[in-house]
Design brief:
The protein has 549 residues and is mainly alpha-helical. The protein contains 23 helices and two strands.
């Protein structure tokens, strides 16, 4: 007998059962792996499809903004609004100088009344010469204001007629489109209504002719303005206060620059061409580099992203200036210094901040933080701080402080992981050479984990840039470019952000209108910015892992 046949049957049967069980287990194990693989691949595919759908939707609605804004700017030029705005800018700049004089006058009146103890009548008498000078200075622009009023009336009336004609043309087109599906009787009535609609055909060239005829009057008024301003700048009123005299001495320089701008404006008005076409590049540049965001205006709508972009970047940078020291320092302390009991207490509490809803932080900023900061800023002993006393409680600084609180958990968690991945041998070698714990952290641990810390900072930046509710509730929502000339005081100015404008206006716009598509363009910029930040963070993390490996 062979060795196999010598084994009893009772002994061989368990061996066959074991083989069958192993085969069956292998089959079901392989089947389970295939199921898990299919599920994970399906989830990844769904994620890719959703991301592609979101990207397609955003870019599809955003791309239509360029031709619509091009048409918007063409009407702005053909109706003569562009020519009128050239003169309007000249009048506005003059008003800025007049406000400067009014500010100086108010400061001098406060000094006389509150510091020297004079009465209001005495201060008024002492400032009579200054008031006479300021009045004559303000009157130098009167002729331009009269011409601008005439221009505004002509242009606004022309644009209103064009808007009415376009609305009627669209209504007539809708009636004609309804003929296809309407019953015979209703189709006849719709056709009669469409034929009865009289749509005005506007000859822009003929309508703007009276506007062009006003240019010689503007040039003559410019000559008179230059003579009067030069005479006033050479005969400044006397001032008893040295500070007022120093500030008043800056006025001739302002006048010189203003008159140079007036001459440049006159040249632009003389060379203005009503029929000059508006290209797609010009329409895009009006959005990408535009400094005004004005909607629902009787005059002209502008969709410039610069005020929103600068507001978003200002708040994000301020938030990071607060969050980076706290987040990184907390990560170093928890990972390198804290005892196990402290780690169990500190780490969960920091990470718990990320669970607080942003709308709750926004309400906290409105109800308590912003108002408390404003009241503290009114303390006399804090007058030396730029921007104090704060005039408003909702500012870039208020929103940035709350966003920093939201960014700290992100920076802390990722920075702590990066520090934890630094090889222990680095620390031990440093300590063995006689370095203190602080020296080891600053010169060994932090440089070794710097790439991971930078990735944490970039992801924290992406976190605060994409935040909506806090900035919508606490930033002040003033669509203006921050005045960087105020120095540190820029922190306490109200601003608006890209996320805030989308959340504020998207629910009120007409679908597929130019305003609707402009908001999608803002969304595209925000999407690309977030994508860039995340790409940089992933690249830094990959480099960090390679260097550690």
């Amino acid at each position: 007998m062979s060795a196999v046949t010598d084994i009893p049957h009772a002994v061989r049967r368990p061996t066959r059962e074991i083989l069958l069980r192993r085969k069956r287990g292998w089959f079901f194990g392989l089947r389970g792996e295939r199921v898990a693989q299919t599920v994970f691949q399906g989830n990844a595919l769904i994620s890719i499809l959703v991301l592609a759908l979101i990207t397609f939707t955003i870019f599809r609605d955003a791309v239509g903004f360029i031709p619509m804004n091009r048409q918007n700017l063409e009407i702005y030029r053909r109706a003569g609004l562009e020519l009128a705005d050239m003169l309007r800018g000249q009048v506005t700049d003059h008003s800025t100088m007049s406000r400067y004089l009014a500010t100086l006058r108010q400061q001098e009146a406060d000094r006389l009344i509150h510091r020297q103890g004079q009465t209001a009548a005495q201060a008024q008498a002492q400032l009579a010469a200054f008031d006479d000078f300021a009045t004559r200075f303000a009157d130098t622009i009167a002729a331009h204001e009269t011409i601008l009023g005439t221009m505004t009336e002509l242009c606004s009336g022309l644009k209103e007629r064009y808007t009415v004609a376009e609305d009627m043309r669209q209504a007539k087109l809708n009636l004609l489109n309804g003929l296809r599906s309407a019953p015979p009787g209703r189709a006849l009535r719709l056709k009669q209504q469409a034929e009865a609609m009289q749509i005005e055909v506007i000859d822009f060239k003929a309508e703007v002719a009276p506007l062009l005829a006003l240019r010689p009057e503007v040039f003559a008024a410019n000559a008179t303005l230059a003579a009067e301003l030069s005479r006033l700048a050479a005969a400044l009123p006397p001032a008893s206060d040295p500070d007022l005299q120093r500030k008043l001495a800056r006025l001739p320089g302002f006048v010189t620059r203003y008159l140079a701008a007036v001459e440049a404006t006159a040249q632009r008005m003389a060379a203005w061409d009503q029929g000059k076409p508006v290209g797609a590049v010009e329409a895009f540049n009006a959005f990408a580099f535009g400094r005004k965001w004005i909607t629902a205006s009787f005059w002209q709508d502008w969709y410039g992203i610069i005020p929103l972009l600068t507001g978003s970047l200002l708040i994000a940078c301020l938030a990071l200036l607060i969050a980076i020291p706290f987040g990184v320092a907390a990560a170093l302390y928890v990972n390198q210094v804290a005892r196990p009991l402290e780690q169990k207490i500190i780490k969960p509490y920091i990470e718990f901040i990320s669970a607080i809803p942003s709308v709750v932080l926004g309400f906290f900023g409105i109800a308590m933080f912003g108002e408390t900061l404003r009241r503290v800023s009114q303390s006399p002993w804090l007058d030396w701080v730029p921007g104090f006393p704060m005039l408003e409680r909702l500012t870039a600084g208020t929103a940035a402080a709350l966003l920093a609180l939201m960014a700290i958990p992100t920076i802390f968690s990722l920075a702590e992981d990066a520090i934890n991945n630094v090889p222990r041998s680095f620390k031990e070698a440093s300590l063995a050479l006689g370095a203190t714990r602080l020296q080891t952290m600053i010169r060994i641990t932090v440089p070794a984990a710097l790439s991971g810390i930078m990735a944490a900072i970039l992801l924290g930046f992406g976190r605060v840039v994409g935040e909506t509710m806090v900035v919508l509730l606490c930033a002040g929502n003033r669509i203006e470019i921050p005045d960087l000339s105020a120095g540190f005081g820029v922190v306490f100015q109200p601003v608006h952000t890209m996320t805030g404008i989308i959340a504020q206006e998207m629910g009120e716009v007409v679908r597929n209108s130019i305003h609707y598509r402009a908001l999608f363009m803002v969304g595209v910029v925000l999407f690309l910015l977030s994508l860039l930040v995340n790409w940089l963070a992933q690249k830094i993390v990959r480099r960090y892992r390679i260097s550690i490996g």
